[in-house]
Amino acid sequence: MDLGLKGRWALVCAASKGLGRGCAEALVAEGVNVVITARGVEALEATAAALRVQNPAVQVLAVAGDISTEAGRAAALQACPQVDILVNNAGGPPPGDFRDWDREAWLAALEANMLTPIALIKATVDAMAARGFGRIINITSGAVKAPIDTLGLSNGARSGLTGFVAGLARQPALASRNVTINNLLPGAFDTERLQKTLRAGAEKTGQALDAVAARRAAGIPAQRFGTAAEFGAICAMLCSVQAAYLTGQNILLDGGAYPGTF
C-alpha cells in the first residue's frame, strides 16, 4: 500500500536507536525526508548514514542535541524545511520509590516527557493546519494504560501528555484541517533500554540473562518481545493519508500483554 507520504518532511526525536530509529526507518522507506535528533553524536551520525543508504532518494539530516532544551528544539526545527510529521520521543525517567524523588526529579520528568512534546506541537501544529496536512505521533508507554508502581515519574508525566493530547486532537481547527495527533504506547520491545532492565534483573536475582528474558517474554501472549521495525511500521501507518480519520487515540502495542477489554 502506498501511504501517500513521499516527499513529506518528518522530525523524529530520539531517533539514533530503538523505537525512534524504527520510526525513522519506516518513514524513510516511504520516501519521507527526515530530520533526526539525539544527544549522542556518534550513534546519531551512524543512523543517519544508514538511512541514506536505505533510501538515497530522500534527504536525511542529523541534528545532535538535547530536545528537552529550548536550544535543542530550536536547532531541530530550524533544520527541517517544514514539519509535516512530528514524532515525539524521549527516554523515560528512572524507576524508583516516589518517596525518594525531589522536586527536581519531577520537573526533569515533566520537561522531557510532557512539556517538550507540547512545545514541539505548539511550534508546528498551526503550520500543519494551514497546509492542510499534519501527523503528530507521541511515543509514550504502555504504563499509561496499565501503570507500573516503580515508574511513577513516567506514569505521571506521560499521563499528563495523554490528557493534553486528548483535548487538543479534538479541536475542529486541527481535525478538520487533516491534522491528526495520536499516541503510541509500547509494551516490551527489544531495545537497549529493555536489555538494560533485563540485565539489572539478572544481576539482582543471580539468574542467567537468558532465563530472565525468557520469563519476561513468557508473560506476553505473543511469547516474544516486539521489534523496532514493527513499531515503526505502525507509526508510518498512523502518518499515512489513509489514517486521516484517526485522531486522539492511544494505540497500545504490547503483544497482547494488557489484559483488559478497554
TrEMBL record:
**Family membership noted in the UniProt record:** Belongs to the short-chain dehydrogenases/reductases (SDR) family.
Identify this protein by name.
SDR family oxidoreductase
Q: Which Pfam families match?
A: adh_short_C2
**Organism listed in the record:** Roseateles aquae
Coiled coil region boundaries: none
Would you say which domain of life the source belongs to?
Bacteria
Which InterPro entries does the record match to this protein? NAD(P)-bd_dom_sf, SDR, SDR_fam
